[in-house]
Amino acid sequence: VKETLSASIDKLPEKERIVVTLYYYEGLTLKEISLVLKLSEARISQLHTKAIFRLRGALARIKSSLL
C-alpha cells in the first residue's frame, strides 16, 4: 500500500505533489504552504483537496483490482 501510495503521489501534477509533500511529510500548515508557493491559502486548500481525491481514486482502483 505504501509503495502504491508513493507511486500515486509521484504521478500527481507538480503543484499538488508539492502541497501533499509539504503538508504530510514536512508538517507545514496550509497557510505556511501558501507563503512558500506564493498562492492564496484557498488555492492551496483546493490543490490539497484535488490531490486527495486523485489519491483516493488510485487506491480504490488498486483495491478493486485485488478483489
How much of the polypeptide forms β-strand, as a percent range?
Answer: under 5%
Reported for the largest beta sheet, the result is:
none
Give the overall form.
Answer: elongated
Radius of gyration, Cα only, in angstroms? Answer: 13 Å
Regions with pLDDT < 50 over 5+ consecutive residues?
Answer: none
The residue fraction in helices comes out at over 70%
Element-level helix/strand string? HHHH
- Tell me the distance between the termini: 15 Å
Tally of strands:
0
User: What is the number of helices?
Assistant: 4
Whole-number mean pLDDT? 94
Output the structural class.
Answer: mainly alpha
Overview of this protein structure:
The chain has 67 residues and is an all-alpha fold. The chain has helices spanning 2-10, 14-25, 30-37, 41-66. The protein is elongated.
Describe what is shown at a glance.
With 67 residues, the chain is mostly helical.
List the helices and strands and how they pair.
Layout: H1 2-10, H2 14-25, H3 30-37, H4 41-66
Structural key phrases:
elongated; 4 helices; mainly alpha
